[in-house]
Amino acid sequence: MAGVAYSDSGAPRSGMGVDAADYDGDGWQDLFVANIDQELFSLYQNQKDLTFIDKPGEIGQATRLLSGWGLKFFDYDNDGDPDLILANGHPDDMVEIQSLKVKYKEPLLMFENVNGKYKNVTATSGDVFKGEWPARGLSVGDYDNDGDLDVLIINNGEAPILLRNDGGNRNNWLGLQLVATKSNPGAIGAIITWEAGGVKRSRWKTSGGSYLSSHDPREILGIGQATKIDSVEIKWPSGQIDKLTDLPINKYIKVTEGKGWK
Description:
Blueprint: E1 18-21, E2 30-33, E3 42-46, E4 52-54, H1 58-62, E5 68-74, E6 83-88, H2 95-98, E7 109-114, E8 117-120, E9 135-141, E10 150-155, E11 161-163, E12 172-179, E13 191-196, E14 199-204, E15 219-224, E16 231-235, E17 241-244, E18 252-256, E19 260-261
């Protein structure tokens, strides 16, 4: 009924990696699902009536011969909107005996969110994107605490890959560590709304996403070239609403439910 069970041609697909975010900035959660080769990956746009429409755009053709596992909506350039990284690898290590086009090891893909549409920026994202990998899990977090999100990719039978983000923190940001007092311990389901430079954005705090993976529990709010954050509002799962002002930029702060920040 929601439009996410089958492809547009009515075929079931082999969904593996999955994530949710408001990629088009309309306040409603959209979905991304990675599938096996020939099935295309799915970018489901929320129609605000409990239904979705699959609008993969450039992602469709780029993933036709790939099998997706780990994936994540994440703001790699701190401009405030969710970009997308995909980790791929065929489940059958003998697939190349049967197919001339489909490979066991596959490339990573990176897509930049440009005004609510995804542009393939894989070719300009670093030398690691020129390689091929038997990728499975993918986890996102700021491991070096420099204000931009890095990526760890787990490979099947091979060493993991740690991708350090070089340049995402050229744009300004604010990092949040949410500490719940009444809500669930992870503050999962909190709605974070921030305003800077005349632009208001919002994000739901989620727990998982990707494939058998979890992520840095801190949130980084990107504000682009704005030099001030006007306000941050956190609607906690308990119903408590905290509005924060006089905030710093380019640092992490701790926000305690009902008690403000420090």
